[in-house]
Amino acid sequence: MEMNELLAMAKECGFDHVGALNVTELEFMPEVRDMCAADKCHAYGRSWSCPPAVGTLEELSAKALSYHRGLLLQCTTELEDDFDIEAMEENEKRQKRAFDALVEKLKPHFPECWPMGSGSCRLCEECTYPDAPCRFPERVYPSMEACGLFVSRVCKQSGMEYYYGPRTMTYTSCILID
Hints:
The protein is an alpha+beta fold and 178 residues long. The protein is built from five helices and four strands, in the order αβααβαβαβ. The protein has a four-stranded antiparallel β-sheet with strand order 1-2-4-3. The protein is globular, with a radius of gyration of 16 Å. The model has no long low-confidence stretch (mean pLDDT 95).
């Protein structure tokens, strides 16, 4: 499947901004993983989609070497003010719906694709990690940050904006394909 077809498919799923991911420049950074370890989101060590469950930076970096192209995907919304939590939450849900829809469309063509979402998994009210296997292993995706990717840097290296102006919120995800 050609890149222009993949990008059109992503747009059809509901993303506002889509582009080709610069896979060769992906850098899995300990500094980003350290931000996860600070546990400000209260998911570190409590979710199958977060560290340490997603693997080491070395494992993730080695895995990335097997991919030659990918998609960078964003949903952006305008906020009424800097504290418009409802708009932020709705945009996050919209991003996850579009992401799930695109992964479902891509899997038949690219069964080994590697989806990296935005934020922690929210499929279950309480995650089974680390006591039991994931209830939905085919639907749980690590976030780009959980994998150690500095999202604004990935966007810049892929020729895509990260910030769309004051009073906007953008969620970014990617999918590596072979």
